[in-house]
Amino acid sequence: MDTITRRLPAVLTAVALAVLLAWPSITGFYSYNDGYYNGIVASACISAVLTISLNLAMGYGGMLSMMHTGLQLLGGYGAGHLVVKAGAPWYAGIAAGVALGAVLSAAVLLISLRATYLYFGMITLAANLIVVEGGKEWEDLTGGLNGIVGIAPGGLSKTAFYYVVLAFLVLTYIVQRNLVRSGVGRAAMAVRESPDAAAAMGIRPATTKALVFSIAGGLAGLAGALYALQLGFINPDVGLLDNGLVFFVGLFVGGIGTLAGPILGVALIALLVELIKDHARYTTLILGVALLAAMMVIPRGVVGTWGASRFGRRPDREDTDPAGGLPDSVLPPPPPGDVPALEGRGLVKHFGGVKAVDGVDISVGSGTVHGIIGPNGSGKSTTVSCLTRFHQVDDGEVLVFGETAARHPWAVPSQGVIRVFQIPHLFEQQSVLDNVLTGRRRRESYGWLAAVLRLPAYRRQDRAGRAEGRALLEFAGLAGRADRLAGSLSHGQKRLLEVVRAAASGPRVLILDEPATGLTRTEIAALARLCRGFRDAGLAVVLIEHNVEFVMDVCDQITVIDSGTVIASGAPDHVRGHPAVLEAYLGRPDLVEEATP
Ligand SMILES: Nc1ncnc2c1ncn2[C@@H]1O[C@H](COP(=O)(O)OP(=O)(O)OP(=O)(O)O)[C@@H](O)[C@H]1O
């Protein structure tokens, strides 16, 4: 039974594709009005292309786009201009539509890099208004309110154009699927869920967003060009925001952030609109109700709900004990000479009147676990943020293997310094294995085109990455959970996964901020094993912890910070009995004494 239900989506997809391929023959055989029915399905396919584009931007990229109807309009203008005014063939019109959509998206993204989700949405809304109003007013170029007419796919019959549209829908779906399942897509989802965590793994949020939004824009332009060729005209009404309702409803009913959701959603909406065509004036009302119902009953949409159900989920495997070692491919190269792996000299960071870090010196060697301890609010995390450039220092310098650290947090990982945050920053909507693969992104050398075309470079790296990811999960005892959503793990497993994900970036310096908080004894033992494994592999591990017993057990060197300054540093035995340390832990001297054998 389980096998049948798991195969159901593939079977339904094959049946749907067969029906779409045979559709002109079916309608030709059964109806005198075959042109009308072919047109409806072709329009739905074009809507699905636009909805996939919206899905890429919003669902996978986490960017609220209110400009997709505007992009569609622009694509239509591009096609209209080339085909009607320049007399170019229809495929040149399509290329123009794609290019215009991509360029406008990239431009809008670049002027709104710092905008948060809602503000970005408002900027795209403004861009949409400008395109629509520009279309109305710039008559020489756009034909004003009447638009451009007579846009025909010269040389193609209606049936042939139907197949062109179908081919572009399949192509758009493949672009989406190949992108989403590659390191490029995983990087986009990482930025969507936590730009800081993505940056800490060397993924540059701005570039990633620009790339995904431009590709989405290109696909929206494609939809616009196809739409203009299908209708034979393009005018500013196409860009009006209420036209976007169909795409939003389709996306949410089908399932935002799923591969098949946009197509299924649009198919359902197209069917609904056809069924109520005799009551067309209620269409908007009915679509509104459908959207509300979908949000309340199946917020993940049909495809998302199926995927999360026991039918759609991959079966769990048995939990396994930690086994094996670190894969060779993630081991760091030998350190260059006898320089510290990471060094902070005279670090100062003030927040207004608060001296969070006030002249900290710290030096971490390769092949050691270096603990940073201190009371709450003593400046440990701020020190780490200075070392990894998440905070720009007020004074002092940061050196990585003797060289000045890069200026931006997303650039520091390229020097081999990877950080795990105090507050969990997992990509919860991705699988456990995908989280690990996201960590590996900075070591992958293929771009979006290689991913979309699945070139050999992509396939080789993808295969190697998956094998390495599974080996890392096995080392951490998480292999049995590889295919589950990361959000479904226990707190302790999530913390271990974050450490594994960081290790997948191939770090030379690994900084773990309070990784043991909330872990069970077994999980702490697994974490200790990981830390020792990293050290034995030659990594410099920095461990910020409150669990003194764990620190004393695992660390080779310890720096103690209080009120933003270093009060002691050295081997655990030296630090344990240091008077200043006992003083700093006053009120909890038991923390230190507990650790004394
Ligand atoms: N972004 C910020 N803005 C203002 N003050 C801050 C900021 N970050 C930290 N601080 C302050 O700086 C001081 C040091 O904080 P920090 O988080 O570095 O300490 P910590 O030793 O890591 O504490 P804990 O063990 O509780 O995590 C605290 O007084 C804190 O309130």
TrEMBL record:
Domain ABC transporter: 342-588
Cellular localization per UniProt: Cell membrane
Signal sequence bounds: none
UniProt membrane topology term: Multi-pass membrane protein
Gene Ontology MF terms: ATP binding
Region of interest (Disordered), ranges: 309-339
Gene3D superfamilies in the cross-refs: P-loop containing nucleotide triphosphate hydrolases
InterPro entries: AAA+_ATPase, ABC_AA/LPS_Transport, ABC_transp_permease, ABC_transporter-like_ATP-bd, ABC_transporter-like_CS, BCA_ABC_TP_C, LivM-like, P-loop_NTPase
Keyword vocabulary terms for this entry: ATP-binding, Cell membrane, Membrane, Nucleotide-binding, Transmembrane, Transmembrane helix, Transport
Pfam families in the cross-refs: ABC_tran, BCA_ABC_TP_C, BPD_transp_2
TM region(s), chain numbering: 12-30, 36-57, 90-110, 117-135, 160-180, 210-233, 245-273, 285-308
The keyword Transmembrane helix belongs to this UniProt entry's keyword annotation: yes
Statement: the UniProt record of this protein carries the keyword ATP-binding: yes
PANTHER family the record matches: AMINO ACID ABC TRANSPORTER ATP-BINDING PROTEIN (PTHR45772:SF7), CONSERVED COMPONENT OF ABC TRANSPORTER FOR NATURAL AMINO ACIDS-RELATED (PTHR45772)
Protein's recorded name: ATP-binding cassette domain-containing protein
Organism, scientific name: Actinomadura yumaensis
Organism lineage: Bacteria, Bacillati, Actinomycetota, Actinomycetes, Streptosporangiales
